[in-house]
Amino acid sequence: MARDYYQVLGVRRDASKDEIKKAYRRLARELHPDINPDPATQERFKEVTQAYEVLSDENKRRMFDMGQDPYAPGGGGAGGFGGAAGFPFDDIMNAFFGGGQTGGRGPRERVRRGRSIKIRVELDLAETAFGVTKEITFPTAILCATCQGEGTAAGTHRTTCDMCHGQGEVSQVTRSFLGQVMTSRPCPQCGGQGSVIPDPCADCAGEGRVREKVTRTVKIPAGVDDGTRIQLAGEGEVGPNGGPRGDIILEIVQRPHPTFERRGDDLQCTVTVPMTAAALGASFAFETLDGTENIDLRPGTNSGHVITLPNKGVTHLDGGGRGDLRIRVDVETPGKLDEEQEALLRKLAELRGEDRAPGRFSPGHGGLFAKLRDAFGAK
User: Fold this and answer.
1) Is this model's pTM higher than 0.85 or not?
2) With 70 as the cut, is the pLDDT of residue 84 above it?
C-alpha cells in the first residue's frame, strides 16, 4: 500500500475535487522538472502526480479509502505516468502553459510600435526661466517612402511561411517520464510572424522603415528645471513594418549661470561692496534676467544682508507667477592701508569711541587698530 495520498497533497480526507485539484496544481508548479531538475524533486513530483491520479478518480479514491491498492492487479490502476487511463496530463499543461497541449498562441503581431527616443536639450537659465522654441536634430527611423511600410518590393506581396504554415510557431513532441510532451517555439524562418517576404524592398531591406536625421521644432515651456522631462507623444521612431511611432522624451539640462544660482524658482547671488559703500549707503546698477535694475544700498548695511526683488526669478511651470531674486551683500574690508588711509580710519575710530573697545581690546592692550595690526602683521 502506498503512503497516505491525502498527506502527500496536504488535504483533508473529506476534501472536495476542487480542493484536491487546487492542491495538486500548487505542488506541480513547485515540483515540475522544468523548474526543479533535482532527482529528489522529480521523485516527489511523481508521488504528487500519483496521489492526484488516485484522489481525482472516484473509483480509485473509494478503493484507497477502503484500504485497497488501486494499482494492484485487477484494481483498475492506470497505465503509469503518461498512460491514457486517468493521468491528468491536461492539468499539468494548464498549470504551466495556460492552455493545454496545443498552445494556440498564433503568429506574432507583425506591426509593432516604434521605440521612444530620449534627447538631452541644453538650455541657458534665461531659456528655462521664460521658455524657448528650439530646433533639435537627431537620428531616427521613418516610414520607407518606397514601400510605405510594407517591406516588399513594388508589385510583390508577403507569402505564407511554408515552415509553420502561417501559424507563427512550430511544435515538437518529446517523450519523458510524463509521457508525450508537446512544446512550441517561434518559427525560425518567419520569426513568428506567419509570413515571409520573398522579394524585399531594396530601400529598407524588408523592414518597412529607414533611418535618417530629422529636425523637429519644439516649444520648451517656461519654468522647466534641470532634469525636467517633456514627452512628445507619437514623435519617436516609426515601428517595424510601418508600426505607430514611439515618443520623444526631452531631458532638460540647465547650463550653469555666471551670476545666479537657482533654488527652485528663486534665484540667488552675492554682491560684494566696499566697506565705505556699506557704511555710507550707495546705489548701483544690477543686471537681472529682465534687464538692468537700480539697487539702493542703505547706510550701515552689514555683510549677510539680503535684498529681495520680488517676481524677478524663474516663471512657475504652472504659469502662476514667478519666483524672487535674492541678492546677498558681502561687505569687503580693505586688506592693506597706506599711511593716510590708516590715519583717517584711526581718526574715525577715535571719533566713534572705537579705539578702546571692551574685552580683549580693553585699555592696557593697545587700541583697536593697533591690535588688528599686530594680529595680521600690518605695517
Assistant:
1) no
2) no
